[in-house]
Amino acid sequence: xxxxxxxxxxxxxxxxxxxxxxxxxxxxxxxxxxxxxxxxxxxxxxxxxxxxxxxxxxxxxxxxxxxxxxxxxxxxxxxxxxxxxxxxxxxxxxxxxxxxxxxxxxxxxxxxxxxxxxxxxxxxxxxxxxxxxxxxxxxxxxxxxxxxxxxxxxxxxxxxxxxxxxxxxxxxxxxxxxxxxxxxxxxxxxxxxxxxxxxxxxxxxxxxxxxxxxxxxxxxxxxxxxxxxxxxxxxxxxxxxxxxxxxxxxxxxxxxxxxxxxxxxxxxxxxxxxxxxxxxxxxxxxxxxxxxxxxxxxx
Length: 299
Hints:
Layout: E1 14-20, H1 21-25, E2 28-29, H2 31-34, H3 42-52, E3 60-65, E4 68-73, H4 75-85, H5 110-117, E5 120-126, H6 132-141, H7 148-158, H8 162-176, H9 181-195, H10 209-218, H11 224-243, H12 249-261, H13 267-274, H14 284-298
Parallel strand pairs: 2-4, 3-5
Antiparallel strand pairs: 1-5, 3-4
Helix pairs in contact: 3-4, 6-7, 7-9, 8-9, 8-11, 9-10, 9-12, 11-12, 12-13, 12-14
């Protein structure tokens, strides 16, 4: 299968736009991304109170879907402004002494209303029609850290197939008594690279694992058999990782998967083979090349 692993973010794929709160609230938002219902939570109250006291707002990251804005980063800011300015939200004065007579937008003086509505917000706007890989790249470049929640959030938003990953992760959590669902989701995505390793062996290019994982997610469909084999792999390797910590878990898991489907699974053989590979691989091609050598040895 041919995968889309070429990521080339261009200047025309996004724009930097500065707009006022009043202009922002007149945008057509994808309300599914904002979730149903509006209420002034303590978090949202803090955001509005900070703006009223002159603190700068966070930067937004949005997708322009032909005029409809889908919020990727900054959802709470947008919800807070909508709740307070449009839906009569009432502040609960969490960190700031704003006074009991200034709890709703209607309570503000004309000067205060104008000051809030004139507050400038910077938005990075992703252009319509860009590829999923580019959307992912722009989103992750705007994160302060490369964390599992960010991976879960953007992949769930971009790839319709991500529901398969969530379903399998839930099964693994139930069977192995683990509760770090986002970590398991990420590990499943890496395992999918190992499952499809033949498409990448011999390639001298260097693509980060997450780029290849995304390419697989674009056309992914997990069958019942594949799901069962993935769950079985996580169950068996969980016992290995309890005994041995300093090994590449992703490589171990991928090797175990192929041993299982070839009826060659032997815990001690896998341990002996994998001890020579303590480092984690960052690039898909070197990961798959090394996996191929181990599979030839054991399977």
